[in-house]
Design brief:
Radius of gyration: 20 Å
Number of domains: 1
Number of helices: 14
Helix content: 25-40%
Number of strands: 8
Structural class: alpha+beta
Oligomer: single chain
């Protein structure tokens, strides 16, 4: 079975690096359209809904849990690429790693002390970002029950040089590697908590877990939601991935961080213009009671499948280039200061 877009025909077989954007607008192949359910993925995601509710599993979950299970199964049956396959093989030991036994007596510290040592441990284990937020019910997928009170969110930086090749398999392999690294850090952090007598439930992508990843990352100060549906961080831009640990250890919540990225996205169209399936829109949308940037699921997923992960929007985002995010953050702060003084 062959994928039907430019890079798999030119790169998957030849192994060359000659990918170029398709000359014609991308159209989802009939083979994929035939596997779509009789309901739009945007409707499943709650596009246009004014009421806050829990999300429904839609992709990267167990196919039995989602109405897009047939398409997801088809996607996982496609032939791979040596770079991606190797990255997946390298991740197997991480996925099989077992957590440490739970110590019988929980160690007692103040919430402030626990917050400091948990973040310190997360960074020592390899996370570039660590934040904390209380779990909200509307982040938990339908069909999952979570008892833990806190989310320790982990940010895992990607190599921009590799990511900038998107949607070449080099970039997809980098995504797999860094999600693997995130899973490794989450598991090690959960094990460390368990040695202190506090249970921890770790998770890293790209497979979906029991809760949404982006909302808690926004809540704990990782940055602002970008037009492409990814977080923009004041230091890492969009070039990072997420993992987390759910726990009951007493902690102190971090605050959200707004520094002007949202306003920047209002006036920037780079990712919007670069998206082959035209899935990124110029305006925000109401989604499950919240007005926010939203990427059209039905347009995005077929191209994502064809390229085993795409990532063009992150690669072209001005914030993703090394050194740009801190400079842009300072520039936006100066502009805001001038506006406030006027």
């Amino acid at each position: 079975m062959e994928r039907r877009c430019d890079w798999p025909r030119r790169v998957n077989k030849s192994g060359t690096d000659d990918w170029q954007p398709p000359a014609e607008p991308y159209v989802a192949p009939q083979e994929q359209r035939d596997l779509f359910p009789d309901v739009s993925g945007n409707a499943i995601n709650g596009l246009g809904e004014s009421t806050v509710r829990r999300p429904e599993p839609i992709y990267h979950h167990d196919p039995e849990r989602t109405r897009f299970g047939a398409l997801q199964t088809w996607f996982h049956g496609l032939p791979g690429h040596p770079l991606i396959d190797q990255a997946r093989r390298d991740r197997i030991p991480i996925m099989e790693e077992q957590l440490a036994p739970l110590a019988p007596q929980p160690e007692q510290r103040s919430p402030a002390d626990w917050t400091a040592v948990v973040k310190e441990q997360a960074r020592a284990l390899g996370a570039e970002l660590a934040g904390i937020t209380p779990l909200r019910p509307e982040w938990v997928f339908e069909g999952f029950e979570i008892t833990q009170k806190w989310v320790v969110v982990l940010g895992i930086a990607m190599d921009y040089v590799e990511q900038s090749t998107a949607p070449h398999p080099r970039s997809i392999a980098e995504v797999v590697r860094q999600y693997g690294r995130g899973t490794h850090v989450a598991k090690r952090l959960a094990s460390w908590l368990r040695t202190k007598g506090w249970d921890g439930l770790p998770h890293g992508g790209p497979e979906a877990g029991p809760i949404l990843m982006i909302p808690p990352a926004l809540a704990c100060g990782f940055g602002e939601l970008g037009k492409d549906g990814s977080i923009i961080n004041r230091d890492l831009g969009s070039c990072f991935r997420l993992a987390y640990v759910l726990t009951d250890v007493p902690l102190v919540a971090d605050a959200p961080d707004a520094f002007g990225a949202d306003e920047f996205c209002m006036n920037c169209r780079v990712c919007e213009k670069a998206c082959p399936p035209d899935a990124i829109t110029p305006t925000k949308h109401l989604v499950r009671g919240e007005t926010k940037w939203y990427v059209d699921f039905d347009k995005c997923v077929p191209y994502f499948n064809d390229t085993t992960g795409c990532g063009i929007c992150i690669a072209v985002c001005p914030w993703s280039r090394p050194g740009v995010a801190p400079n842009l953050t300072k520039k936006l702060a100066r502009r805001r200061a001038r506006q406030d003084a006027a």
